[in-house]
Design a protein that fits this description.
Helix content: 25-40%
Number of strands: 7
Strand content: 15-25%
Shape: globular
Oligomer: single chain
Order of helices and strands: HHEEEEHHEEHE
Number of helices: 5
Length: 156
C-alpha cells in the first residue's frame, strides 16, 4: 500500500484491496462503474469467476471468489511482489496481473463460451464487458446472457 501511495498508483491500491478482501472474505467485487442488468445467482456455484474484456485480456472489474481461493492469492502475491521489486513504477496491476496468473495456470485463447482454468470460470466478453473501453455504449451490445455492463469511466 505504501508503494502505491508513494507512486500515486491509486488504481493499484484498489487492486491490492480487492484481492486482499476477496481472499480473506470472499464475495463479489464490482468496480463503481458497473451497471447491473440482472442477478449473479446463477454464478454463485462457481469457486471463482471473472471475464475477458477483449480477446487477449481478462479483467477483474467483475470478480467473484470463495474465501481463500488460490487464484486470488496468486494475484495478490504477484501484485505485492511487483511493488516490492524495482522498478516499482513499472508495475502494471489489474488486468495485466490477472491475465498473467491465468496464463500461468493454463488459460488458452479466447473462446465465445465459458472457459475453466482449474476451478476458475472465465467468461466471454458479452457477460461483463459487452463493449470495449474505446467504444461508445450502444444498447445492441446487450445479449441475453449479459449480466452487467462495465462503463469504463476511467476513474483511475
Amino acid at each position: 500500500m505504501k508503494s502505491g501511495l508513494e507512486l500515486g498508483r491509486f488504481s493499484s491500491l484498489s487492486d491490492y484491496t480487492r484481492m486482499y478482501a476477496l481472499f480473506n472474505m470472499g464475495g463479489i467485487y464490482l468496480d463503481v462503474d458497473i451497471e447491473m442488468l440482472g442477478s449473479f445467482d446463477s454464478l454463485l456455484d462457481r469457486k471463482c469467476f471473472l471475464g475477458f474484456q477483449n480477446s487477449r485480456v481478462v479483467n477483474g472489474a467483475v470478480l467473484g471468489a470463495v474465501p481463500n481461493h488460490p487464484f486470488i492469492l496468486a494475484c495478490f502475491e504477484l501484485l505485492t511482489s511487483r511493488y516490492e521489486t524495482p522498478p516499482r513504477d513499472a508495475c502494471k496491476g489489474g488486468p495485466t496481473i490477472i491475465t498473467e496468473v491465468l496464463r500461468q495456470m493454463g488459460l488458452g485463447d479466447y473462446q465465445d463460451e465459458e472457459i475453466q482454468v482449474g476451478d476458475v470460470s472465465v467468461f466471454p466478453t458479452r457477460y461483463f464487458y459487452p463493449y470495449y473501453w474505446n467504444e461508445s455504449y450502444q444498447s445492441r451490445c446487450i445479449k441475453d446472457d449479459t449480466f452487467c455492463v462495465h462503463h469504463w469511466t476511467h476513474l483511475w
